[in-house]
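If you are new to this repository, start here. Below is one unmodified record pulled from the training split, so you can see the exact layout before writing a loader.
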Amino acid sequence: MPDFVLALDQGTSSSRAIVFDHAGEMRAVSQQPFEQIYPQPGWVEHDPEEIWRTQIETARAALDQAGATAADVSAIGITNQRETTVIWDRDGTPIHNAIVWQDRRTAGLCDELRERGLEEKFRERTGLLLDPYFSGTKVKWLLDNVEGARKRAEAGELMFGTVDSWLMYRLCGVHATDYTNASRTLLYNVFEKRWDDELLSALDVPASLLPKVQASSGAFGETTLFGGPVPVTGVAGDQHAALFGQACFRPGMAKNTYGTGAFLLMNTGDAPPRSQSLITTIAWGLPEKDRDVVTYALEGSIFIAGAAVQWLRDELGFFAEAAESAELAASVPDSNGVYVVPAFVGLGAPHWDPHARGAILGLTRGANRAHITRATLESIAYQVRDAAEAMERDCGTKLTELRVDGGAAANDLLLQMQADILGREVVRPACLETTALGAAYLAGLATGFWKDADDVTNNWREERRFSPEMPEGHREEMYGGWQRAVERARGWAAD
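And here is the target side for that same chain:
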């Protein structure tokens, strides 16, 4: 049996590759950032070729660092920024930059579809709301705005995919995706597990563009780009992979990932939940005998979390490294009445307001950069509480604890803020790279590298638990201020 599984973790701001061993320990990691492209306010793009280049270079660097060859790798797992949309031709050439999940250019189209009375149909079949966050309206925009694209698509010359499909095509020459990524497109019926012809018609998307949908763990293809044949056997969108990597296998278990955004997911088992303010999504699909078994999840999608700290660093120059934010925030006892609403690309769950914009409120002459930094960290915790309370209302049960991961989960101050504002215990695992780890587990389960879910559960270890320390009255007073601040940020961008 080979010694390793290679995870390709293609994120919003960087591409990473991590080599894992049987114990789920990281043996090597390589990471490269890539350019964020902002053609207009509210528009966000990536260069698909740069995504591919950085991903393949980090994969080779990680294998070199581990002293591994293709023969030492049991399988490759892919996890990816979701909803980000790429269209390419049969030669593997993109027709345009990728439109990123954060992009707001199709807000008007979503409004038009809503005015036509179509939101409930999309909601009933996809579990999603009409929001520019999802891929379907991005596909329509590309077909309508890239010269010759619609004609080429109707002739069967083009392919659409989220980033997992783009990487898969370049790795293996296979046009495929998994249930988790398909469930984020506004085009896939998550209850009947099929591309939906009526929704394709509503968005004027030819079915020939679409990838084949497969289980998240299983044979997708094989690549020889690392010096020998290696199977690609695991695919999942980043938040679904993190839920799997956190071993949240029982209904009611939940995790929150703090990355560019923050994403709260709760396992709901084989029962697809219905919600008016959160997303119904497929957590993963696994093969079982002669069929695929799908597990569902309820999701609260928060668009800006770590990106707000990056904004303080890059645009306001508050510090040189994002890690310095914790020290600066801890230098003051509180945020001095300041609230930051980081609605740079609108608000996600449970507000779903693409017209909201960022705001800083409560400023006085005594407010300084430390207060604004602390308020920015608090804004992350407030947004998670917004989503968690909506989740608890929908499910009729309270979260007992919240497992956390992602880069910002290394910030002790943020996690204590989260426990205080949420009023729940927050649990940090030993391995914070659970997104990549989940993709590795899905891949390794398909090749026998790991035997079953019990192997995954046995590998999970708690590193630290944060308990609420803030008096309830103070918690509710602070949260009430946050709710007032959100109302002032909503509906700002009329166009």
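Two things worth knowing about this chain: Residues 4-238 form a domain with the Nucleotidyltransferase; domain 5 fold (CATH 3.30.420.40). The chain has 16 helices and 23 strands.
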